[in-house]
Design brief:
The chain is mainly β. It has helices at residues 2-10, 60-71, 280-291, 472-482, 490-496, 506-516; strands at residues 27-34, 42-49, 80-84, 87-92, 102-106, 109-110, 123-128, 140-142, 146-150, 155-166, 176-182, 187-190, 193-198, 204-207, 213-220, 231-236, 247-254, 262-269, 300-304, 307-312, 322-326, 329-330, 343-348, 360-362, 366-370, 375-386, 396-402, 407-410, 413-418, 424-427, 433-440, 451-456. A hairpin with a 2-residue loop joins strand 21 and strand 22.
């Protein structure tokens, strides 16, 4: 299985400049076949491809022939192709003779012909059209074809489809192009069974696995017909640390204020309640013990009808109005296990009537950068999306949504940076050191997110004021230093000496000015 995963992941490096293999070679490819059913008949299977038609090249035809030979119950008899007026055309796929109603893609791009060449690591997907009148089945795919994870740990996937977009002109009334679109509100299938998970408006979904083993993820569209996509997930058993162990976790705590009280702090977690496991309770207890001004007295929990429930967080006793997440997924209980490297976030609800505070999070919890360099973060929130049915009027699911127009806060102060419609924000740091980034929503209540940024002083020739950027101000300072109006020392002197001759001259200032407007490179 790991061999298959490595081949799938290596496909990301395959590009159109690769030289196709010849008949004397054999290559490994990955093949998915959809036979018209709601779930792939063959999903992300490793296939050894050899030249089956003797044309001295390895092609889509060879990959599909070999996939049937190696995996189909009917062997190669389950596959067929014949020469037609349109070239070599498929006549049978996985035993389904569908009157030429077939499609096939290589690396998620439509192939021209069964004779298209393939290279090692290529991903080939073939399918039977279920709509043989209008051929409206849209090819769909996940951004990830294979991945590994631990049991109970979510995997993030994005589902897209390809659809023809007509752009007729007077010269060409049939003009248009294939374009990629997110598939929203698609039900996720796990090993052939429909789950409660659905894709959001951007096609994104997080899928968790209760059991170890090999799992196949696919999807079913809420509207229209899509070719079932495939992702293979190898799930390893979740190891719960025992009381004799200690693990390092990262903890964020929001006490009801506009900025995290504790942000992305490294916490050594030990067994505080003697239940022979390391849990969310232990992580929060240890976080208070190690960081809160009054130590563990700032945290409390009690057994209720709903199990072990929090009663105090960062000194705030909020009448059980608390929430907690592990790795940005809602935790079921304070007794949920915590493993090495887990991210634990707990918060006080500020709306204790409707509990409308939405948990929010950045895609990056920690980053390192230089002063003046841009950092891009994406802000999302978790919210309940109702999907009532006649059988279950309360049905729905928790889904991740982008947070648009949120103001970015750095070290508790508002900045000029705001998130766009996709929740993305770009910010820079002028000062070196450790900075905490958070955000304030323009609409509704979000739990303040947290990202820790370690900012280093950028050692950049020409950067006289040490702000990490080259600007005319740096040239002005160098010019003033060259005529003894100011004195520069240390790094400022080194950066002003553009030609590295040990003396700051007007020529150094001139070169820095040219570099600041991209007319010259300093090195």
């Amino acid at each position: 299985m790991k061999k298959t995963l490595s081949i799938l992941l290596s496909a990301l490096l395959v590009c159109c400049t690769l030289i196709p293999a010849f008949a004397a070679d054999s290559i490994k490819a990955v093949v998915t076949v959809c036979d018209g059913s709601a779930f792939p008949a063959l999903a992300c299977a490793e296939v050894t491809v050899t030249d089956k038609d003797g044309d001295n090249a390895l092609t889509v035809y060879d990959a599909l022939y070999c996939a049937h030979e190696q995996y189909c119950k009917d062997g190669a008899d389950g596959f067929g192709a014949t020469a037609t007026d349109y070239g070599l055309s498929m006549t049978k796929l996985w035993g389904n003779a569908n009157g030429y109603g077939f499609g096939y893609y290589v690396n998620d791009a439509a192939a021209w012909s069964l004779t298209d060449p393939i290279a090692a690591g290529d991903y080939i997907a073939a399918f039977v059209y279920t709509d043989t009148e209008f051929f409206s089945d849209a090819y769909s795919f996940f951004d990830v074809k294979a991945t590994e994870t631990d049991a109970d740990k979510a995997v993030a996937l994005t589902l897209s489809k390809l659809a023809w977009v007509a752009s007729p002109t007077d010269a060409d009334p049939y003009a248009g192009s294939m374009e990629q679109f997110p598939v929203a509100d698609a039900a996720i299938l796990l090993n052939g069974k429909e789950t409660e998970w659905k894709t959001d408006a951007e096609g994104k979904v997080s899928v968790a696995f209760d059991e170890a083993g090999t799992h196949i993820v696919s999807a079913k569209a809420a509207e229209g017909i899509i070719v079932p996509p495939a992702c293979i997930v190898e799930v390893t058993p979740s190891v719960i640390a025992t009381a004799t162990d200690a693990v390092n976790a990262v903890v964020t705590i929001c006490d009801g204020g506009a900025f995290p009280a504790l942000a992305c702090a490294d916490v050594a977690v030990t067994d505080k309640d003697d239940d022979k496991a390391l849990t969310v309770y232990d992580a929060l207890y240890c976080a208070h013990e190690q960081y809160y001004k009054d130590g563990a007295a700032g945290f409390g929990a009690a057994v209720t009808d709903y199990g072990l429930s929090m009663t105090k967080l960062w000194g705030n006793a909020n009448g059980f109005g608390f929430g907690y997440y592990v790795n940005d997924a809602s935790a079921w209980s304070l007794t949920d296990p915590v493993k090495e490297g887990d991210y634990v976030a707990a918060f006080v609800y500020t709306d204790t009537t409707y509990f409308s505070d939405a948990y929010s999070f950045f895609d990056v919890k920690a980053t390192a950068t230089d002063a003046g360099e841009a950092v891009v973060l994406t802000l999302s929130k978790v919210e309940w999306v109702a999907s009532p049915t006649d059988a279950d009027p309360y049905a729905g699911s928790m889904q991740n949504k982008p947070v648009a127009d949120a103001v970015i806060l750095v070290d508790g102060e508002e900045t000029a940076s705001k998130t766009d419609a996709e929740g993305k924000a770009t910010l820079t740091f002028d000062a070196a050191g450790t900075h905490i980034v958070s955000a304030k929503s323009a609409d509704g209540i979000v739990v303040p997110p947290a990202c820790k940024a370690e900012v280093a002083l950028c050692d950049r020739l020409g950067d006289v004021d040490l702000d990490g950027k080259l600007t005319p101000e740096d040239a002005r300072l160098a010019l003033r230093a060259s005529v003894k109006l100011i004195t520069l020392t240390g790094k400022a002197f080194e950066h002003a000496d553009a030609d590295k001759d040990g003396v700051i001259t007007p020529e150094d200032a001139r070169r820095i000015l040219r570099a600041s407007v991209h007319l010259e490179e300093l090195s």
